[in-house]
Design goal:
Mean pLDDT: 83
Number of helices: 10
Strand order of the largest sheet: 2-1-5-4-3
Shape: elongated
Helix content: 40-55%
Distance between the termini: 110 Å
Largest sheet: 5 strands, antiparallel
Length: 294
């Protein structure tokens, strides 16, 4: 009863810790696996042969593992190794196995027994970073905005999203030329855009500003540039930003201003009092007739 209870406690501890337990008779080859061990190798209920276990070990690791276990057995030493298994669905997992041989005095029989633990680690940081950057790039390149990155000292682009081709009509490789950004700013906006970018980047501030650029066709396009300053961390400081084409918005704003100017001209010339107020009764406009009357 005590032996049975001890076995139950060992099995409970193994299940809780995710440990696969196994035992194999060296003479008969009879193999016993606990439930965790079956799960680690994806074995269904029913008899499992030692060859079934070996077949699940990755082909590149199989010969090494067989040689190491035989060497440890003949030397009467404990065995420890890491190896990969290939599961039925094609997934690969890393296992840590520890085992030893136990000789039963009097019976002359030998059993090999041991434990197996899944030590598969999460993907390395570098791989996760590459995946994250690739996902971000796909997201960026599916938008209409132009994502860019440039050296904070030279202002030379180090990355420009493919939407830049549609924005200005130049091949993407042209954007990586020295002074491309400066040389394609509208002449009337160039001085102010350069001074704004220079002053705020020196202060290591994030900023936004509007300016015009000239397309390859000679057309003028309004740009709203959102710029983020990335401080150096063992490397050169970077400017990162998003260029938005706001030409239509600027045209709408200009049309609205012109409409308001025409309204004011007509309203001021009218021989009547014209006024406007917000819902809270705040007066927002009074024509000249109002002031003449009051």
């Amino acid at each position: 009863a005590e032996v049975s209870e001890s076995q139950e406690l060992i099995e409970l501890a193994a299940n809780a810790g995710g440990l696969g337990l196994w035992s194999r008779d060296a003479q008969t080859g009879q193999l016993w696996l606990n439930d965790v061990m079956r799960s680690l190798f994806r074995f269904a209920a029913g008899p499992v042969e030692f060859t079934d276990v070996i077949a699940r070990i990755h082909a590149e690791d199989r010969e090494r593992i067989m040689a190491d276990t035989d060497r440890a057995h003949h030397a009467g030493q404990a065995f420890e190794a890491e190896y990969r298994v290939v599961l039925p669905d094609g997934a690969e997992r890393w296992h840590l196995a520890k085992g030893r041989a136990m000789h039963r005095a009097g019976s002359g029989t030998t059993r090999r027994l041991g434990v197996v633990l899944d030590i598969t680690e999460p993907k390395p940081d570098e791989e996760r970073l590459r995946e994250s950057e690739e996902n971000f790039r796909r997201l960026v390149e599916s938008t209409s905005a132009v994502i860019w990155q440039a050296d904070a000292q030279t202002w030379r682009f180090t990355y420009v999203g493919p939407q830049a081709v549609e924005l200005l009509g130049y091949p993407l490789q042209r954007w990586y030329e020295t002074d491309f950004w400066i040389s394609h700013i509208h002449p009337e906006d160039r001085k102010n855009a350069i001074e704004t970018c220079l002053a705020l980047s020196r202060e290591m501030q994030d900023f936004q500003f509007d300016y015009r650029m000239v397309k390859a066709s000679g057309e003028v396009v309004w740009i709203h540039d959102i710029v983020n300053y990335q401080r150096a961390n063992g490397g050169p400081a970077q400017l990162r930003g998003i260029m938005l084409d706001v030409t239509e918005r600027k045209a709408a704003e200009q049309a609205l201003r012109e409409s308001e100017d025409r309204f004011r001209t007509v309203a001021n010339a009218a021989p009547v009092i014209i006024w406007m107020a917000d819902p809270d009764k705040t007066c927002t406009f009074c024509n000249r007739g109002w002031f003449d009357f009051t």
